[in-house]
Write a structure and sequence with these properties.
This protein is α+β, with helices and mostly antiparallel strands and 641 residues long. A hairpin with a 5-residue loop joins β1 and β2. α3 crosses α4, α5 packs antiparallel against α6 and α13 packs across α14. It starts with a strand and ends in a 13-residue tail after the last helix.
Length: 641
């Protein structure tokens, strides 16, 4: 048989040859360094046979930053972790251990609880295994043989996985440890030059809180120590920027078990929140959106019509009503059913289209307790939703305008935007022909704007494809934020109509658009992106005036009044001047003005956050801060930014 190499040359191999056979035929160095092979774009274990005519590409340890190469390294590291835990903790039950973004984990049922302090001992055992040398071998066995093997070992989780697995059963062995696994894996442990166990967490078996709670050990691995060191440095920076710690320190919000997953916003937090709302309202108005407000509570029939009852019921909060005892009511988990009812309140004309509604409304989603995470995963959600009702010939322009709006917003916050097209899922509404049209419209808008985008097959909403908007923060972390979805199904399900220029009734299309996404989540990401040091226009307190002594307080208050409309505070506490300056720095206030005997309108002692103290006149200082208040000053943003 023949396979095709990346340079389009062909390699002659015996029938049934594996990826490893192909690597050996090319050269011993590749055979030693290869970690996996891609056959026709599909990641495959080197031990598996290749098909005739396959186009193949090898990934080796030198491809250290390739996600697929890292995945196979981390997957093999997870198996080493399981081997070490089984040796150190007799009686432990072993569950699953996949690679994940930035690392890997393995779930265990321990006879007795373990603690963070135990990770060092476990990691040392993994390091011993690597030094001792490990090679992976693969075998395929019958379902019955695999079941009996794991039953005899007292591994109930593996037995359950065997019984519910689809397709062939394969096992991988390193040392004296055999695991149920599809692979791929390294040939041996030599490429694992840097490994670190990073934490513990609880995890329910198969994600179901009705099942046993297991102990999850997290770790990461790299092909080089330098890459691991750089990652751990980023991790330390991320911990320092954790929005829960920073948000509490800056008095922005807090969380309470009295209302799980629902933040309590403090006055300073509401300053930032309202600035984001002001930005949203101003930009929406400028771009032709009409502000609306829809109810929080709907009956079961509404969600059945929208399709959410069939596809989203487990996340809906149902409400018992004494007055509506004959039908179930629910808090809305999203705005779109209400927007359908609003548009459908009367027959519309084609002259009214596109009709752009906008609503920033409270939503409730019954997220499981174990998934809640500060502001990043909450039960109480506020989204900057905007449904755009349009005719088929208006779709591309409207999506293009949404992409342009998104680019403006993300640029405003100094975040790089990344776009991902998510296509039809297996469980979907509508015909393939309808999906062909809606997916094509999204592709066309992305191509027209010249945007590079990834394709996420099968991850669209059940009613239509979508463009997911990702942002890269200052640490290079990617966050999925907004979404632009094209929907042909919900207007039909709600029987929405508009009168066309042909005097016939037509179904509209709907572009569902949320650019900031959940404001709670966006706030959490902003806090971490800026590490709480918000830009001047977004800072809860922009200027703090510190009178040197009690006699300077009247003049300091007068100065603060003259610096309006900026958000100015006067610190009249009895702390020393140095301590008050230090407090302002810790609170990340952009400017501190110290006012004493030497200060006047012509000479102010101004200390900029992170900089040195300088002397500025009042007019000069006002001009300086005015230039930092970009959108507050009314500057018109570029639509092609």
């Amino acid at each position: 048989m023949k396979v095709v190499l990346p340079d389009n040359s062909q390699l002659e191999l015996p029938d049934g040859a594996t990826g490893l056979d192909a690597a050996r035929a090319i050269g011993p160095k590749l055979a030693e360094q290869a970690v996996l092979v891609k056959a026709n774009g599909e990641v495959r274990d080197l031990r598996l046979p290749l098909s005739d005519g396959a186009r193949i590409q090898f990934l080796a340890a030198r491809d250290a930053n390739d996600p697929d190469a890292l995945d196979v390294l981390r997957h093999s590291s997870a198996h080493l972790l399981a081997e070490a835990v089984r040796r150190l903790y007799p009686g432990v039950k072993i569950a699953i251990g996949p690679p994940i973004e930035n690392g890997f984990y393995y779930d265990f049922e321990f006879p007795e609880p373990i603690h963070e302090s135990d990770l060092e001992r476990i990691e040392a055992e993994v390091q011993r295994e690597i030094a001792e040398g490990r090679e992976w071998t693969r075998e395929e066995v019958s379902r019955q043989e695999a079941r009996e093997r794991f039953l005899s070992q007292g591994e109930p989780y593996k037995v359950e996985l065997v019984e519910t697995a689809e397709g062939d059963i394969s096992l991988y062995t390193q040392g004296d440890f055999t695991d149920l696994c599809r692979g791929p894996h390294l040939q041996d442990a030599k490429p694992i030059n840097a490994i670190k166990l990073t934490g513990l967490a609880g995890a329910y078996w198969r994600g179901d809180e009705k099942n046993t709670q297991l102990t999850r050990i997290y770790g990461t691995a790299f092909y080089s120590q330098a890459d691991l060191d750089a990652y751990l440095e980023r991790l330390e920076q991320a911990r320092a920027r954790d929005h829960r710690r920073v948000g509490t320190h800056l008095d922005l919000f807090h969380l309470s078990d009295h209302s799980p997953g629902s933040p309590f916003w403090h006055p300073k937090g509401m300053v930032v929140w309202n600035l984001l709302e002001d930005l949203r309202r101003r930009e929406n108005a400028r771009r032709g959106y009409l502000e609306v407000k829809t109810p929080l509570l709907y009956d079961e029939q509404t969600y059945e019509t929208s399709g959410h009852l069939q596809n989203y019921e487990e996340n809906i909060f149902w409400v018992h009503s004494h007055s509506e005892s004959d039908r179930r009511m629910a808090l809305k988990p999203m705005n779109c059913p209400g927007h359908m009812l609003l548009f459908g309140s009367r027959l519309r004309s084609y002259k009214e289209l596109p009709m752009r509604f906008a609503e920033s409304s409270t939503l409730h989603r019954d997220e499981k307790g174990g998934t809640l995470h500060g502001l990043l995963r909450v039960k109480h959600i506020t989204q900057d939703d905007a449904p755009i009702f349009c005719s088929p010939d208006q779709i591309e322009d409207e999506i293009f305008a949404c992409l342009d709006y998104a680019a403006y917003l993300y640029d405003l916050f100094g975040m790089e935007a990344r776009f991902e097209l998510s296509t039809r899922p297996e469980q979907k509404l509508g015909s393939d022909e309808e999906w062909d049209f809606t997916e094509g419209a999204l592709r066309s808008a992305l191509d027209r704007r010249g945007i590079d985008y990834a394709v996420n097959e099968g991850d669209g909403a059940f009613y239509g494809p979508k463009i997911d908007l990702h942002m890269l923060d200052v640490l290079g972390r990617s966050w999925q934020m907004g979404t632009i979805q094209l929907d042909s199904q919900m207007p039909q399900r709600f029987n929405l109509r508009y009168m066309g220029s042909d005097n016939e009734e037509h179904f509209p299309y709907v572009v569902h658009r949320a650019l900031l996404g959940s404001l709670e989540r966006f706030m959490g990401i902003l806090i971490e992106h800026y590490a709480g040091a918000f830009p001047f226009w977004l800072a809860p307190v922009q200027i703090r005036v510190i009178p040197v002594g009690e006699s300077h307080r009247p003049a300091a208050s007068e100065l603060a009044a003259r610096l309006k409309p900026y958000r100015v505070e006067v610190d009249e506490s009895d702390e020393t001047v140095g301590k008050r300056i230090r407090n302002a720095e810790l609170e990340k206030i952009p400017f501190v003005v110290v006012y004493g005997d030497k200060e006047s309108d012509q000479s102010l002692a101004v200390r900029e956050r992170g900089g040195e103290q300088s002397t500025l006149g009042l007019t000069e200082f006002q001009e300086k801060v005015a230039n930092l208040s970009v959108w507050q000053a009314g500057a018109e943003p570029s639509l092609t930014s």
